[in-house]
Amino acid sequence: PKTQSGKKIVFGATVTLVDEDGVEVQYQIVGEDESDIKNSKISWKSPVAKALLGKNEGDETVIRKPNGEQTVEILKVEFK
After folding, report:
1. What span, in angstroms and rounded, lies between the C-alpha atoms of 9 and 77?
2. From CA 33, how far away is CA 12, in angstroms rounded?
3. Range 56-60 average pLDDT
4. Order of strands, edge to edge, in the sheet holding 68-78?
5. Which of 13, 16, 33, 44 could join 76 via S-S bond, C-beta 3.0 to 4.6 A?
6. Taking CA 53 as the corner, what is the angle to CA 31 and CA 29, rounded to the nearest 5 degrees?
7. Phi, psi dihedral angles at 32 (to 5 degrees)
8. In which band, very low, low, confident or very high, does the pLDDT at 6 lie, cut at 50, 70 and 90?
9. With 90 as the cut, is the pLDDT of residue 10 above it?
10. b vs e for 19-50, b when ≥16 Cβ sit within 10 Å of the residue's Cβ?
11. What is the 8-class DSSP label of residue 37?
C-alpha cells in the first residue's frame, strides 16, 4: 500500500470515516485472510468495505449493516 497514492478508495487503503454522531473510525481494507477487526483491518468483502470501495475522500456513503443503515462521510484516504 505504501507505493499507492490518491484519494480514491481501493484495496489496501486506510480510510478515516465520521458518522452522523461525529464518531470517527479508521479501517484498512485488506484480504480475507488478513482481516482483524481488533486492529481495524476489514476484508474487502465486508459490507463496510463494499460501501467504501471506489469512493473518494469527501464523499458520503451508506453502509448497510445487519442492524440498519448508517451514513458516513469519508474524511481521509491514506496508503500506509
Report:
1. 7
2. 13
3. 95
4. 41-43, 24-30, 14-19, 68-78, 60-65
5. 16
6. 30
7. -60, -40
8. confident
9. yes
10. eeeeeeeebbbbeeeebeeeeeebbbebebbb
11. G
- Sign of the CA dihedral with 61 first, then 56, 15, and 76 last: negative
Which residue has 482483524 as its cell numbers?
Answer: 36
pTM attached to this predicted model? 0.86
pLDDT tens-digit readout, 18-40: 999 999 999 999 999 999 999 99
- Determine the straight-line distance between the first and last CA of the chain, rounded to whole angstroms: 6
